[in-house]
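Hey all, quick one. A colleague (J.T.) asked me to put the zinc ion job into the tracker so the inputs and the structure tokens live in one place instead of scattered across chat threads. No bug as far as I know, just bookkeeping. Sequence used:
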Amino acid sequence: MLRSFCRFLAAAAVLSLISPLAWPLSEAEIASHAEAAALARIREAAMADDYAYERLAALTDTIGPRLSGSPQAAAAVDQVAAEMRALGAVVQLQPVKVPHWVRGAETAELTAYPGRPAGVTQKLVLTALGGSTATPKGGLEREVVVIRSFAELDARAAELRDRIVLISIPFDQQLADNGHAGIAYGQGGEPRFRGPAAAAKHGAAAVLVRSVGGANFRLPHTGATVWSEGGTRLPAAALTVEDALLIERLSAKGPVRMKLLLTPQTLPDADSHNVIADWPGREKPDEVVVVSGHLDSWDLGTGAIDDGAGIATAMATIRLMKELGLQPRRTIRLVAFMNEENGTRGAKAYFEAVQKQIGTQSAAIESDAGAGRPLGIDAYVTAAALKRMQPLFDALKPIGATVPQRSERPTGVDISPLQRAGVPGFEPLLDTRHYFDYHHTAADTLDKVEPDHLRRQLAVMAMLAYWLAEQEQPLERQPVIKE
Ligand SMILES: [Zn+2]
């Protein structure tokens, strides 16, 4: 009791000292108090908000996978546009021609290997990579050559002709565990990105890559592969880690043969859209802060973490502005990008539309790293700009998202063209230790998203968007990156 009374006296003494000095407040002080109050309101509202989770459930549970060109992708465009219109945002659908690749049957079995009992074959679990061609109708049966590095691929080029080439390079989960999942994905994903085209040059009949991911539950991870322009395209698939290891063990003892059937189709490019929804600024409506995610997803799961979470939190950012009656100086613009996964045509269409007035793009945010707990903000900005953002990081303290991570390269695939043209770019910095467990698999579903993490992600997106849109002077621009 006595102790608390003493504390009261001490507090009163401090107040009596401070109050006369703090009065009257300068205009700048009043503005910074108002900014801190608005950021706190946004944070508290976000932490009590289930709208983002509801939107995510609507996308994933009622529509499901949203691969470019599919009826589901079209339904997602309609759903997001209708919801944004209902909030009173100014909505436009930006036309985008997208690749239209459709998965077919995909089966494989080992038909010959050392020690195989008569009459026995072994079924394998795999999934076609986006852009894969089909095998002949009845499938193809060939010997498998296992390759463990790109150097080995070149060194053994002569052995690859008319073979099924398995490129088996592990994903480094240790890197992911230590906060470098992006680097682990870059390294582990290289065989998928460029392995099939490289093997095609050496005359391979088909290419398999070991799945890129950190959790091995015999789940294949799909994804795009990059063919060289005008070059040969092949049947290409991701094999589960377990089956890649099985083939490695067997082929160490002698020849292994596989029968492979893939029947995907590449259809003519389809009509689709980016959804753009503006929450107009009160003073500078022509200057925009983009808040975004990508609306398309791979076709195996329901695209909850990749990237329904980004879309849902971007949508909820607009809704929070409405709910809290906030209309910052500049326009906050939701962009639900189409076709990030297998073409980035949506990003190109948006950039082409704003390129001539690039000065109107004040800043761009994209969330596309899942739905893990936010740790801070990944910022492609100057050091001085990051320092200026300190009041924002202070306002994020109660939810622990305080790491100011300055990126040397553009961040967020869809907003990358904007950043290359000088626009400061941002992405919530998320815990991605388990992102690649589910990424591009059938297990990317709503249950992987922790509602509390999504609320925190919304807080980061909305506070950042508001802060950027409200600054009297926009953040200084980045150097233009030439090709
Ligand atoms: Zn994504």
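Adding what we noticed when we looked at it: The longest strand covers residues 265-279. Residues 294, 306-307, 340, 368 surround zinc ion (CB under 6 Å).
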